[in-house]
User: What shape does this take?
Amino acid sequence: MHFLRPLYVVLAIAGIILIARTFVVPEDFGIHESGYMYGWYRKANEGEWKAIKPKYQGREYCRDCHAEAEQQVRSSGHKLIECENCHGPARSHPEDPPKLTLDRSRELCLRCHTFLPYPTSKRSEIKGIHPEQHNPDGECAGCHNPHQASKPQ
Amino acid sequence: MKFALGGSGALVFTRGLNEIFRPVALQASSRPVRWVFLVDTYKCIGCGFCVKACKLENEIPFEANVSRTWVERYIVTKEDGVFADTPKEARHGFTTSRVDLGQGKYKDIPREIIDKAFFVPKLCNQCEKPPCVQVCPVGATYQTAEGVVLVDQKWCIGCGYCIMACPYGMRFFHPVHHVAEKCNFCYHRLAKKMKPACVLACPVGARRIGNIKDPGDAVAKTIMTQRVSIHKPEYGTNPQVYYLGLSEEVR
Assistant: This one.
């Protein structure tokens, strides 16, 4: 039965691969909730993703210490803007980082306040400027208080 | 000895096969939670705070030209047709009326010839039938019980099949880890009952997340009762990011 020899070789290789697999592949690797086609994975990875620490904490987190500033923004035209959009993600502030990196650039304000004449977009309803004409070298916060939007100081 | 070796070999063999082809697990689960997303293009103002927040929250190098989410601008004119751009994925927002035509060319489109212009945020559709997951040869990307598609960064071999398979172009190589990367609705934040970073950062409520399995959920209600549409339904991927006010120009 010499012709069976290649078959034995193939079976042996398949066997070795399956034996090796039991050592290499983790216990939790296999078919999970979403079935064979979409749910074939290492279960522990879900936990690894879940363990990542959020960086953006939301205005409620800021309010605990900066209640006055938060209240000021809340009663202004900028009430919709999250603190962290300008001040950067809080992470575990004040422990880490002790000081946040505030973006004072013109470009930050221009995200919303460059006038774009789009008839079917809410963007055109925001008070906008033409950046090349409106004090091109000035810092916005020099005249406008971002916490009390609308009126120049 | 020979028998013992052969016997244990056969046992491991059948166990291995059983692990790969387990019919019970093939049955679809009933999901208690199914995360879905609702984008309101009427509300989006193109500030790009969502892109900024996403990149910082998920540690995608800020100046790298890849992003888990981006915002597109569409301008439909009376004369030349449709212009669309997303300068640097809109991570700095749209701060100029000049449209990026690519290859260093820009065009300023005067108000008079604009019929309609609007912004469309894009993010992973967390498809119910994700083609990116089907093509992964090593089981490094998968759909969780909540319907979110994740990438196992330790398991990914960086072959790029999933990047090619996504009809929406949502996947890319992480510039640092060199593995497939994509939006996952901020899975780590959802686990802590927090909103995704883009949803938090959006000042106008153009981005919302909801649980379609919860009948009391405001987003689920909107999706069930309002006129919503999805991207590229012809691919049969069953995307779960719904749009209000999507126009036929949007690709």
Notes: Chain B touches chain A through 70 residues (CB under 8 Å). Residues 132 and 208 of chain B are 24 Å apart (CA to CA).
